[in-house]
Amino acid sequence: MTGNLTQKDIFPTSQLEEADGEGHNCTDNPTMGEIISRRFSRRGFLQGSLAVSAIAATVGPVALMSAEKARAAGGSAFIFKEIEAGVDADHHVAEGYDANVLLRWGDAVFADSPAFDPKNQTAEAQRRQFGYNNDYVGYIPLGGSSEHGLLVVNHEYTNPHLMFPGLVTVADGKIKQAPLSKEQVDIEMAAHGGTIVEIRKVDGKWQVVPDGKYNRRITTMTEMQLTGPAAGDERLKTVADASGKKVVGTLNNCAGGVTPWGTYIMAEENFHGYFSGKLPEGHKEAANYKRYGVPEGGYEWANFHDRFDLGKEPNEPNRFGWIVEVDAFDPQSVPKKRTALGRFKHEGAANIISKDGRVVFYLGDDERFDYVYKFVTAAAYNEADRAANLDLLDNGTLYVAKFADDGALQWLPLTFGQGPLTTENGFTSQADVLIETRRAGDLLGATKMDRPEDIEPNAVNGKVYVMLTNNTKRKAEQVNTANPRADNAFGHIIEISEDGGAFSATSGKWEVLLKCGDPSVAAVGASFSTDTTKNGWFGMPDNCSIDAAGRLWVATDGNSNKATGRTDGLWAVDTEGAARATSKLFYRVPVGAELCGPLFLPDDQTAFVAVQHPGDGGDDWSGHGRPSYYEDLSTRWPDFKPDMPVRPAVVAITKAGGGKIAV
C-alpha cells in the first residue's frame, strides 16, 4: 500500500526520538567504539568476565534454584521463570507476577477530571488528564512508605496518527497524514509535560487517589523560571520575555529523576523537533543550532504558536534542552529550569549522595556521537533542612567524560576560563558554556559515544551503569577487528568505578559490562554469558533501574519483529560473580511499544514500568507489515475495545500474593 515508505516516513513524530540522523558532532574526538577496540586488542578479547561466547539459539532455560543457593554457588541473583521473547498485541510478565495497568493516557488526574473521550478530545480536558507517551516514572514516599506516595511521570512526546481519528487517510493506495488543526496542536501541547499524582496500595493493588492534594499536571503551557548561571543572559531573551528568566512550558521530557529532598526532575531531550522556520540571515545562533539539529520541524506547532518559529523568536530554542526541577509538595510552585546542569538532549538525571555529602547527577546526551556528563553540587545535602536543598542545583560543576584506551576515565570540568573554554573560542561567560554545552565538550576532547541514554549510580556496589543504545552510523574504519561493531545496531552497557568509591571524584575506571545483540550471530559480537537463553538476550539498552538489593534491570528501545524478532521489555542483568553478563527476560511490551521508566520501590515489592507508544511502527506482529494508525491499529492495548485507541500506560508489577520481586 505504501511502496517503500515506512511508518517513520509517513508519521514524522515516530522518527524524532530515535536520533537516527547522521549526528551533529563533527569533531575528530575518538569514538567509544575506537577506544573499546584499542583496549580489547591490547588486553586480549577472551578474558575474564568480558569473554564473548557464541550461544546457540536453542539453549534451554537455566534450571531454577533458590536465590540463596544460586548466590552461594556464584549463580544468578535473579530467581524467576523467564518468559518467552516474541511479538504480539499484549504485554506479558513472568509467571507468579501480576502486571496491572495503573494509569493510561486520558485517565483522570483530579477528582473532577472529565472522562476520556477519544473522538471528542479538547486541550482543556487533556490538561486534567494523564498525558501521552509516559516515560520516566519516579516515586516520592509519603511518610516514608513504600505503599503510599506520589508517582511522578514524564510525558515525552505525542503521536498524532495514533491519537486522533480521521487524521490519516488512504487514497489511491497511499497513506497520508493531514495537517493538524490548532485544536489538535493544543491537545498535543497539553499531553506533553508531566504528571504528579498520589497513589496508594490497597489490598495488594495500586490505585490513584483522585483527590490527592499534590496532584498536578505540568504542560508546555506551564510557566517556568530559568535559574542558575545562564538565567537572564541575552541569548535567552525573547520578544515575549525581555528578562530571559521566564519560560512557558517544557517538552520532550524523557527519563528524569527524584532528588533526596523530594523534588521531581524533568529532563528535556529532543527539543529540536518542535521548531520550524528559518533564522534571520546571519543570525549569531546559526552554528549553535546546527550543532543541536535545530530546526527539525517534526511538529506543526509553529503554524499556530510564534515561539516555535525561528523567524519570529530566534532565541526560543536556547530556552529548551535543560533540566527542570519541580517541588512535588507544592502544586502552586513554579518549576525551575536549572541551567547549571547544561543544555543538551538530556536523557535522565539519576542522582546519588557522594561520600562528601555533595549530590551527583549523571546525565546522558541522547544522540549518536555525543557525550556523557555529570554534575556535582557545590554545597552538601542537608538532610535536616529541606529548604536549604531547594536551590542546590544552581551551583556546582558540570563535567564531561573522557574514556581512555587503558580503562581510565577523566571527568573534565566545563568551566568558563579553563582550558579551551575562553573568549578566544567564542565563550564570554559561563552562560555561553552552558548554552553551548555540546561545543564545550567538543573543545575539551570528550569521547564520542553511541547514544548515551540513562545513567544510573548503584549505591550498593558503588558502580555506575551507562546505557548506550546504538549507533548505526559508525563506520567500519572507526573500529578494528578486535571489536567488529561497525553499524552498531544493538548497543552496549558501560560500568564505571569512580576513584575512591566517591561519585564526586574527577577520575575513575571503566569497563564494558555487556555488548548487546544476538549472541548466536558471531558477527554481532555480543557478550552475554553462556547461561543466557535464547529469550534472555536483548538489543538497544535504553533505561535501567537499580533495585534495593543493588541488582540491575535494563529496559530497551528498538527491538522489533524486524530487528530482533521480539518486542522491547525489561531484562534482569547480573553484574557480579560467575553470573556476570547473564540476562533474563522478565516483562515484555505489546507490539510497537518501548519500555521506559523501570522503577523499583524501596521495599522491592513493586516495579513500575512505562509502556510508551504501543502500536507505533509498521512492524506488525501479525505479519501485515503495514503502518499503524488510529483506524488501523496493530494493537488496542490496554483496553482492547473497538471504541478505544491504543493508549500508553504505566503498569504496576507485583508478586502474586505479595513479597519481593524476582527472589
What's the Cα radius of gyration? 23 Å
Adjacency order of strands in the biggest sheet: 16-17-19-20-21-26-25-24-23
Helix content: 10-25%
The helix/strand class is mainly beta
Shape: globular
Distance between the termini: 49 Å
Beta content comes to 25-35%
Low-confidence stretches: 1-5, 40-67, 480-484
Description:
By secondary structure, this protein is mainly beta. The chain has 11 helices and 33 strands. The longest helix has 12 residues, at 32-43. The relative contact order is 0.16.
Descriptive labels:
11 helices, globular, mainly beta, six-stranded mixed beta sheet, nine-stranded antiparallel beta sheet, 663 residues
Summarize this entry quickly.
With 663 residues, the chain is mainly β. Helix content is 10%, strand content 29%. The N terminus is likely disordered.
How is this fold's topology laid out?
Blueprint: H1 7-10, H2 13-16, H3 32-43, H4 67-72, E1 92-93, E2 97-104, H5 123-126, E3 134-141, E4 148-155, H6 160-163, E5 168-171, E6 174-177, H7 182-191, E7 193-202, E8 205-208, E9 216-218, E10 223-227, E11 246-248, E12 253-258, E13 263-268, H8 286-292, E14 323-327, E15 336-338, E16 346-353, E17 358-365, E18 368-370, E19 372-380, H9 386-389, E20 396-403, E21 408-413, H10 430-435, H11 437-444, E22 449-450, E23 452-457, E24 463-468, E25 492-498, E26 507-515, E27 541-546, E28 552-556, E29 569-573, E30 583-588, E31 594-600, E32 606-612, E33 649-655
Parallel strand pairs: 10-15
Antiparallel strand pairs: 1-30, 2-33, 3-4, 4-7, 5-6, 7-8, 7-9, 10-11, 12-13, 13-14, 14-15, 16-17, 17-19, 18-22, 19-20, 20-21, 21-26, 23-24, 24-25, 25-26, 27-28, 28-29, 29-30, 31-32, 32-33
